[in-house]
Amino acid sequence: MNEIERFKELVGNSDNIVFFGGAGVSTESGIPDFRSVDGLYNQKYDYPPETILSHSFYLYHTEEFYRFYRDKMLALDAEPNMAHKKLAELEQKGKLKAVITQNIDGLHQKAGSKEVLELHGSVHRNYCQKCHKLYDARYILESEGIPTCECGGKIKPDVVLYEEGLDSRTLQKSIEYISNADILIIGGTSLAVYPAAGLIDYYRGNKLVLINKSATPMDSRADLIIHESIGKVFGAL
């Protein structure tokens, strides 16, 4: 039995699956990955993306932050791919309990997933830092310079920037889902970003599935490894 057949069998026999995903889930929808060869590291900015997308850069170079953010982080026309769609289907069938994602693009929800825990926030939620009024991503994309609220306050995206902590409630719920899961499927992530990658340590089962094109630091702990495109693997379900 090959890896994909084994994967299909595992999924078929479980109704307590949790999926943990990273950038590789969205690259197949045309959203660039930070670390890929043609990703955001090889771009036309004076600073590396990790500097621009930091809390201190946002504070002190807000206009430059937004120039990059509009240009690179708001892929509002992207559509869910096969992985997003199949995960939503598995949830509707009562097999999948939650999607835990490092992505901020909202594509899981666009595909129909309901229980989505966004570790790094979402580009679709933006709030005035003064009066807390909410704005959507389209408002940010179409604004110029620093987006401001009608009250005059500065609008900030509800995404977790470098130097900022993750939301404690989202983390706690993620830990509960992972520690109770029968199958934990990890897809499209190099498992290099902490504290998110550390969540895997809470999994207590013996059906850890890793789907990623390249090797990860967790490969030795996996019960099934599939080095293949995530859309192709989920497309086989």
Chain-wise SSE layout:
Blueprint lengths: L2 H10 L4 E5 L2 H4 L21 H4 L2 H6 L1 H11 L9 H11 L3 E6 L5 H5 L4 E3 L2 E8 L5 E2 L1 H6 L12 E5 L8 H13 L2 E5 L20 E4 L12 E3 L3 H6 L2
Parallel strand pairs: 1-2, 1-7, 2-3, 7-8, 8-9
Antiparallel strand pairs: 4-5, 4-6
Function: NAD-dependent protein deacetylase which modulates the activities of several enzymes which are inactive in their acetylated form.
EC number: 2.3.1.286
Keywords: Acyltransferase, Cytoplasm, Metal-binding, NAD, Transferase, Zinc
Strand content: 15-25%
Order of helices and strands: HEHHHHHEHEEEHEHEEEH
Strand order of the largest sheet: 3-2-1-7-8-9
What is the strand tally? 9
The CATH homologous superfamily of the largest domain corresponds to TPP-binding domain
What's the CATH C level of the largest domain?
Alpha Beta
Rounded average pLDDT: 92
Which CATH architecture of the largest domain? 3-Layer(aba) Sandwich
Sequence stretches where pLDDT stays below 50 over 5 or more residues? none
Assembly status: single chain
* Number of distinct helices: 10
Largest sheet: 6 strands, parallel
Approximate helicity band? 25-40%
User: In angstroms, what is the radius of gyration?
Assistant: 18 Å
Shape category: elongated
Taking the alpha carbons of the first and last residues, their distance comes to 15 Å
**How many domains, in number, for the residues?**
2
CATH fold topology of the largest domain: Rossmann fold
Q: Based on helices, strands and strand pairing, what is the structural class?
A: alpha/beta
Pfam families: SIR2 (PF02146)
InterPro entries: DHS-like_NAD/FAD-binding_dom, NAD-dep_sirtuin_deacylases, Sirtuin, Sirtuin_cat_small_dom_sf, Sirtuin_class_U, Ssirtuin_cat_dom
Catalytic activity: N(6)-acetyl-L-lysyl-[protein] + NAD(+) + H2O = 2''-O-acetyl-ADP-D-ribose + nicotinamide + L-lysyl-[protein]
Main location: cytoplasm
